[in-house]
Specification:
By secondary structure, the protein is α+β, with helices and mostly antiparallel strands. It has five helices and four strands; from the N terminus they run αααααββββ. A four-stranded antiparallel beta sheet has the order 1-2-3-4, with no helix packed on it. It comes from Diaphorina citri.
């Protein structure tokens, strides 16, 4: 839902698969989009923009605390009203040790019914992402532009691939694997690796909470 490089093609029934008909006789095809999205590409682009917006960046660490962090279990989970049925928690029951097949089946059905909570990763509050002001970003972008202009004659260069992975200014770029991929680091504290062969992002990692 956030991969803008694929332009939301998964929302279209491009293979013409027969999904049947609706109650009114209309044939089921591609996903019906909301009024604010004229096409799948606009739909995923707006979702991506919302995900990477400042307001989400300011609140995302609180969600991480609830789902993967220190508020997932224990006293902090109680304070946050973040408690679930005991079978939802990883390790609450060892199904391999249950000898009674009827009891095991009952437990499996309950687990599938309630769902399972992800593995707890963090045991302390997740740091809030520090946002870079727009003026600082523009200033930094200008500096990078001046440096690139003095580096070489761009008229002899031809673009191989366009990508818009970083939310903020890119601070470093490196060619990896004998020209197979490109690694970039931005002021958003993200490391991105793109394949020049496929034109797709291969890896993304958070370097710090800077």
């Amino acid at each position: 839902f956030y991969d803008t490089e694929q332009k939301g093609d998964f929302l279209e029934n491009s293979y013409g698969i027969h999904f049947g008909y609706r109650y009114d006789g209309t044939k089921v095809g591609g996903v019906q989009l909301p009024p604010w999205a004229e096409c799948p590409e606009i739909f995923v682009t707006k979702l991506r923009e919302a995900l990477e917006s400042d307001i989400v960046s300011r609140q995302l660490h609180l969600w991480i605390d609830l789902i993967f962090g220190y508020k997932q279990r224990g006293v902090e989970a109680e304070k946050a009203d973040n408690l679930f049925y005991y079978l939802c928690y990883e390790g609450s029951v060892n199904l391999d040790m249950v000898q009674d097949w009827n009891q095991r089946h009952a437990l499996e059905v309950q687990i599938m019914e309630f769902g399972q909570i992800p593995k707890q990763i963090f045991h302390s509050p997740h740091p809030r992402r520090t946002l870079t002001s727009q003026s600082s970003l523009l200033k930094h972008s200008t500096i990078l532009s001046d440096v690139s202009n003095s580096w070489c004659d761009k008229s002899i260069l031809e673009p191989l691939h366009f990508c818009h992975s970083h939310k903020e200014a890119i601070t470093a770029v490196a060619i990896c694997g004998e020209g197979i991929s490109v690694a970039s680091v931005g002021r958003d504290a993200m490391l991105k690796i793109h394949s020049l062969k496929t034109g797709r992002q291969e890896r993304s990692a958070v370097l710090s909470s800077m």
